[in-house]
Specification:
The protein is of the alpha/beta class and 285 residues long. The protein contains 9 helices and 8 strands.
């Protein structure tokens, strides 16, 4: 079921340094910014249509290099992407907002909260990328990231993306982009994956959450992991537990039946979780 009560509008926001970020928004109320994972800029496209979020102002972006956001000719760090998120919120006059970050988008959400706490009411992190990480994160790098990068030279971004997403999501991810987002999704994923392997994977590897900074982050944080993810890797549950120990106002929740591709697997369930968390605010923690 999709919402027809609010029509989405879109635009390109100039966020400085020659960067323009494409965004879509709909609705009114508390602002919720959706920060997508790597490899594909439309992980969150179905959430924009979910009726559970009708009572909120929902903003989703294509991060620089993804989808309709032009790529820039330089390396972008996680802090750069976080600055772009903050600039979009500033341009839209959103005020204090909830940020939902998926995978590497979780790292960007955390960095945004650290850099611009004035803009952040709380965070919802959907299986944030494994930093901090432990043995399971190291195993994931050896089993998935290394082979994906090796395949990049031989088979291109498409082959590398399949290895990467099979490794973190399970093979059931493959039909989901087209099922949720239409016939152009596979071509979009290939274009986005090219940027991911060219630049963003480096940014994700470079980024580390400073424990001292994390201890000072006084916003409520919900860390979500999927019950199916351990079928592929224990890295996301491991990172969730480590983050819960580092952040002063964090709790973890598990979504039954879902894995790392959760925004495409069951957008209604993810939207409902976002709705209840945002409406509960700090009182949900």
């Amino acid at each position: 079921m999709t919402s027809t009560s609010n029509t989405a509008i879109s635009g390109l926001a100039d966020v400085g340094d020659g960067v323009r970020i494409h965004y879509e928004e709909r609705g009114t109320g508390d602002t919720v910014l959706l920060v997508h994972a790597g490899l594909y800029g439309d992980w969150f496209a179905p959430l924009l249509r979910e009726p559970a979020l009708d009572g909120h102002r929902i903003v989703r972006t294509h991060r620089s290099g993804y989808g309709a956001s032009p790529r820039v000719d330089r390396h972008l760090t996680i802090a750069d992407h976080a600055r772009h998120c903050a600039a979009v919120l500033d341009r839209l006059g959103a005020g204090r907002s909830w940020i939902v970050g998926h995978s590497s988008g979780g790292a960007i959400a955390l960095q945004t909260a650290l850099d611009r706490p004035d803009l952040v009411a709380g965070l919802i992190l959907l299986e944030p990328a494994p930093s901090p990480s432990g043995p399971a994160g190291a195993e994931l790098g050896e089993r998935v990231v290394g082979p994906a990068m090796a395949a990049l030279g031989a088979g291109g971004a498409g082959a590398a993306a399949r290895i990467f997403l099979d490794g973190v999501c399970g093979a059931h991810w493959a039909p989901l982009p087209v099922q949720r987002n239409g016939d152009g999704a596979d071509a979009q994923l290939l274009a986005d994956a090219t940027y991911f392997f060219d630049d963003e994977i480096r940014a994700a590897i470079e980024w580390h959450l400073d424990p001292g900074a994390a201890a000072g982050l006084d916003r409520p944080v919900l860390i979500v992991h999927g019950a199916r993810s351990p079928e592929r890797t224990g890295a996301y549950a491991e990172t969730a537990a480590l983050l819960q120990g580092m952040l002063p106002d964090a709790r973890c929740v598990e979504l039954a039946g879902l894995g790392h591709a959760m925004p495409l697997e069951d957008p209604a369930a993810v939207a409902e979780l976002v709705r209840t968390t945002v409406r509960g605010g700090a009182g949900a923690h």
